[in-house]
Each structure stands twice: as C-alpha cells, then as structure tokens.
Amino acid sequence: MKLKITPDTTVGQALSAEPRLYGALLALGLCCVDENTVMWTMGRLADELGVDAEGLCSALNGQKP
Fold it and tell me: Per-residue pLDDT tens for 6-15?
C-alpha cells in the first residue's frame, strides 16, 4: 500500500514506503538523510526549505499542488 505523505509524515516514513523519493528530496535541497533529518516531519522540512508544506506533500505524492 502506498503511503499518503502529509505534513506530519516523517522523512524516514516517506523513504521507507517510497525509496524512490530519496532523489527528489536531495534535489529539493535536503543535503543528507541522517539520524536527525530522518525524524523531521514534512512540515519541518518544508519550513527548512522555505516552501509550502501542502505543496511539498502534493508533489511528493505525485499530484499537482
């Protein structure tokens, strides 16, 4: 079953469910996934990247934001 990524989904949960997202996250500016960033929520990642959390989740879910 495919995980629906939401702002509360952690980076680790997303990568565990959809390993193909690793490249997309790197392209967005997440320089590395380590023991700290793997626990970030998509909401925090969006804040760190300066993007809209809902738009980020929609894009990672393969939908238009």
Answer: 999 999 999 9
pTM score, two decimals? 0.84
Half-sphere exposure of 30 (CA within 13 A, CB side): 25
Does 1 fall in a domain?
no
Q: Domain of 22?
A: 11-60
Query: What distance in Å separates the CA atoms of residue 25 and residue 54, rounded to the nearest whole number?
Result: 15
Number of domains in the chain: 1
Of 29, 17, 32, 35, nearest in space to 56 by CA? 29
